[in-house]
Amino acid sequence: MALIPAKPDGRPTVNIGMLGYGFMGKAHSNAFKTMPYIFWPDAARPRLKAIAGRTEDKVAEAATRYGFETYSTDWHDLLADPDIQVFDNVGPDPEHFGPTMAAIKAGKHVVCEKPLALSAQEATQLHHAAVEANVKHLTCFNYRFVPAVRLAYEMISNGELGEIYTSSFRYAQEWRTDPDATLPTPAGALSVIGCHAIDQARLLVGDIAAVSAVLSNPVSSADRGEPVDAVTSIAEFHGGATGTISATLIAPGRRNRLSWEINGSKGSICWDLENLNVLRVYRRGGTTSEGFAEVIVCEADHPLVGPWWPSGHVLGWEHSHINMLADFVRAVAEDSPLTRTAATFADGAKAALVADAITESAVKGVRTAVPELPGTSTGS
User: Fold this and answer.
1) Rounded distance, CA 235 to CA 209, Å?
2) Mind listing the pLDDT tens digit for each residue in 104-125?
3) Is the whole-model pTM more than 0.85?
4) For strand 208-216 and strand 368-369, is the pairing parallel, antiparallel, or unpaired?
5) Of 52, 217, 255, 260, which residue is the least packed, with the fewest Cβ within 10 Å?
6) What phi-psi label fits residue 11: left (phi over 0), alpha (psi between -120 and 50 degrees) or beta?
7) What are the DSSP calls for 71-140, one per residue?
């Protein structure tokens, strides 16, 4: 029998233009190339149309490596191409605001890595511009798309923990421990990783009303404008719960540890990115043998798991990006909303408002209220 040609894939395509080609460029490209066959047969097919970056030899290599059709050293070329539907900004943090705002004005749907901007003012401007332009918009808080985190969200939303009393959120890495080490970003602990801890707190416990914070620089020198090494804050939530939110770049041995614990009237849950498939659950039952149980969140009936592997086959860090970007591409292809738990530019701006309040609290040494995002209400 002769070989038979495969049937063409007739699903709709969504054309992607990407700014940036480094670590996150690899993660996003992997996600776009993976989602068509994992979410078969319903997923649209991302078409990697063009990639842009400053250095020609590196962006040319990235285009070939990641599978983009074209490349440019000028990101404006992505906006000038009428075929490009999505502008995906994975460039350096200082380049998040300007190119993303220009993409919105050009009518592109926009994806932007965290932090959405370097200030709450800029992040708020991006949010309002995207809403006014009626384009889809996503802030890349990818940990919202880890199955264990989504299961925790559903448990809390369903009242399984009862009234939330206290919580703690911490993101710890080690790469600033050596003051002579090359820094992957000029951003400090609050901006580069603290925004993830803030977003997890907002997703799981709710909007934050006020903070009291301390910034510290045991390694870096704030006088020389070097990054903040660590931040510790107490958060007061609108729902009445309290908690801590902290971030540190000077935790030896912690390569990439985002962790949290949430305590309620009916029980507690905790999670750790370094063991991302496991959600630890404690339910008050009144028995002498009660204790935390480890739930391996890899079953088909768990949130976000169904399209993936058979029972017990664990997922990894990259799968959170695939799940997240697949949701965004679906929304663009169908002209439908993102899922309720996806982080829009509103979430990126709200995280920035909390971060600015933390900084203000630390500088002034006072409890600081977190302002509402203009045009929204608490919890929206």
Assistant:
1) 8
2) 999 999 999 999 999 999 999 9
3) yes
4) antiparallel
5) 255
6) beta
7) EES-THHHHH-TT--EEEE-S-GGGSHHHHHHHHHTT-EEEEESSS-SSHHHHHHHHHHHHHHT--EEEE
| More reliable by pLDDT, 289 or 272 | 272
The CA-atom distances, in angstroms, between 215 and each of 167, 212, 237, 359 are 20, 11, 21, 8
Q: Which domains does the chain possess?
A: 144-369 (3.30.360.10)
Closest CA to 343 of 20, 99, 172, 113: 113
Q: Specify the length of the chain in residues.
A: 380
| pLDDT, tens digit, 9 for 90 and up, residues 286-311 | 676 788 999 999 999 999 999 999 99
Neighbours of 232 (CB within 10 A): 18
Structure-token match 């498939």, residue found: 277
Omega within 30 of 0 (cis) for the link into 179: no
Looking at residues 57-64, what average pLDDT do you find? 98
- Give SS3 for 317: helix
